[in-house]
Amino acid sequence: EHKLFLVRALIPLHKPKCLAMYHQQLSYCITQFVEKDCKLADIVIRGLLKYWPITNSSKEVLFLSELEEVLEATQPPEFQRCMVPLFHQIAHCLDSLHFQVAERALFFWNNDYIESLIKQNRKVILPIIFPALEKNARNHWNQAVHSLILNVRKIFFDLDPELFKECLLNFQEDESKKDEVKARREATWKRLEEIAAKKASSNEAVLVPFIGPPRTSSG
Known about the structure:
This protein is mainly α and 219 residues long. Helix content is 74%, strand content 0%. The mean pLDDT is 92.
C-alpha cells in the first residue's frame, strides 16, 4: 500500500511547474521512503528520470538535489539496477548550457558515498559520461564548472588509467567520424552552390518538378 502511494501520488507530484513551492517537503517524504525500504530506491530514481524537466533549469537543480539525497540512502544493488539510465541523464546535465545544472551534477563527486558507488561501477559509468566530461574539459565557458570537471576527470584517470585511455580513444574516434560526416556534408552543399551559380550565370533555368495535389478517385 505504501509503495502504491509512492508511485501513484508522491512521484507524480514532481511534474507540476510549481514544484518549487513544496519541493522541500516532497523531497523529505521521498527520502524517508527510501531510508525505510532501500529496495524502493530504484523505483524512486526511475520515477525522477521519468519526470525530469527538459527546459526548466531551476527545476532541474531541484531534481539533482533530491537525487543526491536519495542516492545517499541507496544500497549498491539498487544503484546498479538504475545506474545506466541515471548516468545518461547525469551526462546530459554535465553538458547543460546552464552552468548551475552542470555544477550541481558535478557536486555528486563531493559526496563520499556517491563517489564510492561511482568508483565501484566506473567501467559502466565512465563510458557513458566521458564525452560530456571531455568536451567540457576542453572549453567550458564557466570557470567554476571547468575546474570541477577537471577534478572529476582526474579522479577517473588516477583511479583507472587504462579505462580512461580506452574512453579517450573511443571519444577521439567518434569525433573524427563526426568531422568526416560534417566535411562531406559541407562539400555536397558547396557543389550544389557551384552548380546553381553556373546555371544562374548562363541564364539556364533550374527546373523544379511540380508536385500537384493528390488525385481523388471518381468512384
